[in-house]
Specification:
7-stranded mixed beta sheet, 17 helices, about 20% strand
């Protein structure tokens, strides 16, 4: 029996088939495609039509190789969404969270909803690109006037496959519109900024069914399958796969570095607010108490600036051979969407002639230092004594960053779960079909992957 995980990030997407063989989960990547932000009338947007096309193409690939998945699930980044009108037509464009349109809107929302009030309700950290601020901008521009349905990116893609509209809990929790206590859309927040409540559906949980492929899609891909909801926020899927306990934290290392722990209840204290931690929803109503740190985005853009003339390994080696000249704040606004990341780092450090190797070394050490600071904050705020850091995701391939993380934090650092997001996506499908618990699913992870200390 095959399961298909469609895992889409800010720069690429993959279709990964999963299968249980002798009690172990095997993964097979069968399709990969590029994803990128496009400029539409000076607004940073997602090419949503291309995403739909690529999602279908990857599903069709399963038929071409005669490996038909019983279920399919989709995860992506959080925050962003598609609005549909009464005829189920997209209200374009689909704006990316990296567009700076929300900076002013965030300040205006803050007058009506001060961050301490908003945090006490949602437990979500302040980021100018949060969905609440994007929707507020849509309201001001008139874009919401014809909106009848709100779908986050993975929900929209599932809708295009099935014709069924659902909102999923883990991704919805990133919007800053979901009440952390009752785990539903917060009517008071919506009313206070005049966002129509009727565009939202009741929240559905991971491991529940969306529907079968529509007749039209079946004709396109050549077979039928059932689309289900995984933890559709990619970090929620990654954490679902991570074999963590109360003495460990995870770093989901990708475009963003998401560092945190898993809790049964949200932490809504003033200390958590001041430290800018977030309480995002997880599988089985667990909370991901974490901090967002700009991660591989920094290296992705540096490599883009040099026309990809160096591989990531070559960049890593160059950093290892170079001098550390200073530290940056990886989350500084100047690194969100710069025209040139190398120049942005030089400007931050006030060193315009800095060699590339020193730029890279500074980024490496700054990320490791930010991890150290975040772990210390987690220990202080949650009262936990952290012994182990599990680094998962594509960024866990970076040996230098792993070693620096161990050096700066003084903690045991474990790797081995490079495809954490796709694994968590697949585990939720297995939980749906086999009716097993999260604890049982995580035991499959321990049996299937070589998790080891760096």
């Amino acid at each position: 029996m095959y399961y298909l995980a469609i895992d889409i990030g800010a720069s690429s997407g993959r279709h990964i088939l999963g299968k249980i063989v002798d009690g172990k989960l095997t993964l097979e990547e069968i399709y990969r495609f590029e994803n990128s932000i496009i400029d539409v009338d000076e607004t940073l947007c997602w090419d949503i039509e291309s995403l739909v096309k690529e999602v279908k193409a990857g599903i069709a690939k399963c038929g071409e190789i005669n490996k038909f998945p019983q279920t399919i699930a989709i995860d992506t980044w959080g925050v962003d969404y598609v609005l549909l009108d009464k005829n189920l037509k997209e209200i374009m464009p689909v704006v990316s969270y990296r567009d700076l349109r929300t900076v002013e809107g965030a300040n205006e929302v803050g007058i009506t909803l001060p961050q301490n009030v908003l945090y006490a309700k949602t437990g979500i950290q302040k980021q100018n690109f949060n969905t609440i601020y994007q929707l507020y901008c849509d309201k001001k521009s008139g874009k919401l006037e014809n909106a009848k349905h709100f779908l986050m990116i993975p929900e929209y893609l599932s809708f295009k496959l099935t014709g069924v509209i659902k909102n999923e809990y883990t991704n919805a929790s990133t919007t800053n519109l979901v009440n952390a206590e009752n785990k539903a859309w917060d009517d008071e927040i919506l009313n206070s900024i005049d966002i129509p409540k009727n565009i939202f559906k009741d929240l559905s949980l991971p491991c529940s069914e969306v529907g079968c492929l529509s007749v039209e899609v079946q004709k396109e891909v050549g077979f039928n399958s059932t689309v289900i909801l995984c933890p559709s926020h990619d970090t929620a899927s990654a954490v679902a796969a991570c074999p963590i306990d109360d003495e460990s934290v995870y770093i989901s290392s990708g475009t963003w570095s998401l560092i945190g722990t898993e809790n049964i209840y949200p932490v809504l204290s003033d200390d958590a607010l001041k430290a800018n931690f977030t309480n995002e929803g997880g599988i089985e109503y667990r909370f991901r108490f974490l901090k967002n740190i700009m991660g591989m985005w920094l290296f992705q853009n540096i490599r883009k600036n040099i026309d990809k003339s160096l591989t990531y390994d070559e960049m890593m080696n160059l950093a290892m051979e170079s001098e550390l000249v200073g530290f940056i704040d990886p989350n500084d606004d100047s690194f969100v969407a710069p025209d040139n990341m190398i120049e942005a780092v030089k400007k931050y450090l006030k060193m315009p002639e800095l060699p590339l190797g020193c730029v890279l070394a500074s980024v490496y050490h700054s990320l490791a230092l930010s991890y150290k600071n975040a772990v210390e904050e987690i220990e202080k705020i949650s009262g936990k004594q952290i012994k182990t850091i599990h680094i998962v995701g594509g960024g866990s391939r970076d040996k230098y960053l792993n070693s620096l993380t161990a050096k700066y934090t003084g903690k045991k650092v474990c790797i081995g779960l490079m495809e954490a997001t796709a694994t968590g996506n697949l585990l939720s499908q297995i939980m749906y079909t086999e009716k097993i618990s999260l604890a049982e699913a995580r035991e499959i992870v321990k049996k299937s992957f070589d998790i080891r200390e760096v």
